[in-house]
Fold these 3 entries.
Entry 1:
Amino acid sequence: MSSRHTTTIAGSLLTASFTAVMILSFTAVADDQGPGSGKGGKAVDPAPAGVRLTTALPGKISVDNSSHKTSITATVKNEGTKESGDIRLLVVGFDGLQVKGVQGCSAMAGKDLPKGSNSGFVCDVGNLAAGKSKSYAVDATFDLSKTGKICLPVQDRGGKKTFWQQGPVPFGATNPSPNAPTTPLLLDTTNKPVSPGGDELPRTGPGSDLLPLGAAGAALVSMGAAGLWWSRRRPRRQPS
């Protein structure tokens, strides 16, 4: 994997470790999400020969204006001609988008979350055959008074290499309707939050452009809709 001493990819680097602490189940699947999209995704470390890993997020999700709940389908795909080997998918929420659970996946410990993120899960995908994909139901909430982003890195099992990363890419609405039952959000759209107690719809602060990550002084840089974020350190695992 490229290191800070050799190559900087899209100006972002994360050195972190992840601990799986809790298995959460989730049964709801998002409705009418449309075809998946790889917007905001980019290859990072070279994948094994014949392996091409990508991810996809729905082009549209819907947020309940009362409960703030939403559901998202996160998909990892092997578009290559050979098996992927053991891989894992990370699902991480930022700003107003908080990941509450991912079907069959393990929650990251709070101390292992990068600064700027509020939640994260690790999904052990295993060996993905050529041409196959695997989807995960993501249970989330979205605070419509804020912007919100999600990030999907695909790594080797040990987290030492990141073959692909989608995001942090935003979901959002340019014209929210706070009085409607639900608010539709589009992928790769910055949310224009509803100001409390008024009809004005201001855009909130510039803080999403640069998020410091961890004590090592690494940073995640969001360039447009996409940033690059990957782990150099093998994750700590609790004894079973």
Entry 2:
Amino acid sequence: MGTTQLEAVPEPKYWHLRTVLADALDSDFAVGEILPNERELAARFGVARATLRQALDQLELEGRLQRRRGVGTTVAPPRVGVDVSTTRHEWPGAGAGGDGWQAVECALATAPGTVARLLSTASGEEVHTVRRLRVWHGRPVAAELLYVPASSVPDLPAIDTPSGPARARAVLRALQRLDLDGQERAVELGSARADDAKELDRLPGAPVLVVTTRYVVQGRTAVVSLATYRADTCRLTFGASGDLEISDQPQERQAS
């Protein structure tokens, strides 16, 4: 990482420094590598430590850096791709773990009102709730809840445990036996609720992307997925269609 002259730059010093540091991250550092300490970096670039911290804060906000207690500031891994196109016809869990999703829990619970209306379930009807966590380069980047009515998995095998990861995997396997007509997805910018924030190692209220997916079988909604992604670790991919509506109205995730 070389030095640069910042005195004659018309933009704010911290922003120019952020650009210089970003270029250096691409060329001089590997994922997970620890940056020099703040005193050394500030001396190298001839800036006050307050200016340096502003630049580092911005890069951390953009997901380029991670600050780890007891370790220091490290280069973050590349953002995980979130496919939000509607052209893929694949049930969750079909990737057999290669996409980083891990089944965490399964339980019977009443779906939230908005989800129940999408599923057309009766008032108070319990559905299977499958919780999954997506891990990318060793850190959690997304938490998902799948709402699966019993009518969608009539051939769900009886297993010894009524809950837990084994039951979650059984529900996912049962879904894969159905003929999937298609998917409908929507993305919203929101703020993390306490339960998601804890799983994603973020503070409550941190920015997140909430991806809602309806899985359609024989013309009806068979499953609804609510996936909450850390906004600082993800990038949206649209496939070939680009047929997605994105809402920028900040709102809190409605389901837990």
Entry 3:
Amino acid sequence: MRFFVDTADIAAIRELHELGMVDGVTTNPSLILKSGRDILEVTKEICDLVPGPVSAEVVSDKADDMIREGKHLAALAPNVTVKVPLTWDGLKACKALTDEGHMVNVTLCFTSAQAILAAKAGATFISPFIGRLDDIGLDGMELIADIRQIYDNYGFETNLLAASIRSVNHIIECARIGADVITAPPAVIKAMANHVLTDKGLEQFTADWAKTGQKIGV
């Protein structure tokens, strides 16, 4: 399973990338706003840092405008993935951009039916949102499982990219189900290393080592 980091924060991306924890990056208009950066500038910088796919989202709601914006974003670097919404116009833009050889991430997916349409339109990635479904009392993980089964049934090549990841458990469940990719905020990815028993064990080891009076090396 590939790890994408869901942020436009260069420092956070660099830290995880240096540890080999970043296979790609996803951004959206909200993350661009949070970064305080120009979308073209920060997208190019991310692409220079991370060799994997970097999703940059269009902001128009009409297909022709999405295609125009998508081409502009794709021209920034060969690893740009144009992100379009799962609307009828977004699907039109997906098909047109895919036909021209661009990677496309279809985002804001909330049903299996939408995921089927995205695959038929040639999407490189489909981004179902787990956390936002959980927020309204539905089961986001059930959607991930349904899409996995449907894509496997028919050999769709679209990558299942689980998004709106809120917890370590979301990541583990996605791994069990077989999501191709997860995208999560840096804090959630880093939280995967945490466990109270690890902390407790390290505290005990440190205390016992101090009692030996020994040192390793100079």
